[in-house]
Write a structure and sequence with these properties.
This protein has three domains: 163 residues, no CATH class; 188 residues, no CATH class; 69 residues, no CATH class. The chain contains 14 helices and 17 strands. It has a 15-stranded mixed sheet, covered by helices on one side. A two-stranded parallel ribbon has the order 9-11.
Length: 573
Amino acid sequence: MEHIKYQSNLPPSAEEAEVLKALLQQKTKERSVIDKKISQAQDDIASATQALDLLTRSSARLYSILKANQIASNTRSQSARLYTSSQELHATELSVALIKECESICLLTTDTATPLGEEVKSSLNTAFGRLEVLMASVEHALRQQRLIVNVKSSSIQLYSIDKLPVQTIIDKVLERFSVIKRVPDEVWYEILTVRISKASHSWPRSDTLISIPALPYTHVCRSWRRVINSSPSMWRAIHWSMNCTKEPNRNLIDLWISRSPEHERRIYERQSYFGQVPAGLSHMQFQLPIHEKLQYYLYQTRKELPAGQDRDYSSPINFPSLSLESSSSSSSSRVRSVQESVIHRFPLLESLHLQDIIPRNKICLPSTLTHLGIGFRVPHGTYRLSDLLTPTLESIQLTHFIDSGTPTLDEKIRLPKLRTMDITPLEYETIKKLNLPSLEKLIIRAPLNKAATFPTGWVESLFPHCANVANLELIWPSILQSDPVLSLDRLQVFFELRLHTPKLATVEFSSGRIDGNALADFLGTDQRGRLEHLVIDECIGVSRMDCERFVQYVGKLSVYRTVHKATIAEESE
């Protein structure tokens, strides 16, 4: 976003207005004094320029007369030559007597010219001697006027430099009294980012073949179009509703590819077709310059495979990221076959997220898989999670809806490369059976089921995995339901985990309510080292006074994306 001059939407308070008006009056007087100096210098330059013009003409005329005298001194036609030059005499500043004396020379004609006598020669020499003196005076006056012009021009430049900071202060004071009449682009950017992001994450309508969530907003007004067109992040998503009878507009595909960020593209597809991949998708794959970072979100609406087929034989899709969501939570074999066939079409998967899908049958996952996510928003049955926990996993997200559907592991499973784990308290039994020697980031969130109860000892089940944890994120409201017995204070969770996280550097609290005073008290007495970064986002219960205490105990504090204090390393940079 380009930097736009800030103007407040609110006028200054009465106290601020009084101070600002006094400052404005003072700076206006200072500017007036400077303006007078500039005006006087400009007048002096104008007068000097006018004098220079007059003196230059006089100098030229005097020079013409003296030059004519030199040329005609030994010729009989000197009277004719002097006559031509004598026309300049009346325009000079010579005395009347001297002009008449020079004109007497010009009265001689060529026919009557005779050798000059000594008396006449003496008079001429005297006259031209006076002209030479006058010529010297004119040259001196010319030098003086040129000096005046140069000095005054330099003075105006210095005055202008002195005026600049004064004018800047005046402009800023006047801005405080000017309520803007339009919304700044920065504000539109924040609003449109939220709105388009929400539209992007919703599944496309079944009757819409292809759409770009950001595109309709560019037709509202010039301000929106300017902001959206200059923000590639708003173009990252495209909605796709495939069928085998129609092809999407390829111009829209090309527009999306040209505007979307290269490493953040997302395809949201509602899949209701079967058989070969439509040519439109092939066109998109061919046009995309980089496939490695594209994320594929698939909403599966089919409930069975074509007759006589045991799997989907469509061409494979070499996209590395798949988020699969089903429109049916049925556990029928037909639905499961459809889901498994979709996954098998992605042989190079690096990231797989299953939403409301029970992987009841064993799925052969590729060896390239590094991220696995399984989430439920409705009641569900259990399944064999051990079939999905491959040694290549680097991050895992498990968010079940009810504890009875949470899978259990029959034996201990070691995940040597797992660095990030995102869970709810309902995964208590699963966590006890995991061995995570490389875990660095732990994310704990509340279950979507507000009626869920937390099993006893779930926090303690995390202790064996916390030795190398450097990042901790707690995402849930502090009170999940009305019964105070079952309510959970996440500050208490943090306090308990802090005893077992010697390498903890960053802590983030997202959403809900926290007790800022209690958190500040704990940080002030924490003997396990200073946190590098504390993040508080979308939380209530934290006051400005709490923030002033936080900055004393952490390297950097971020509250609603506002950094209150930077670390020493960042300050040195």
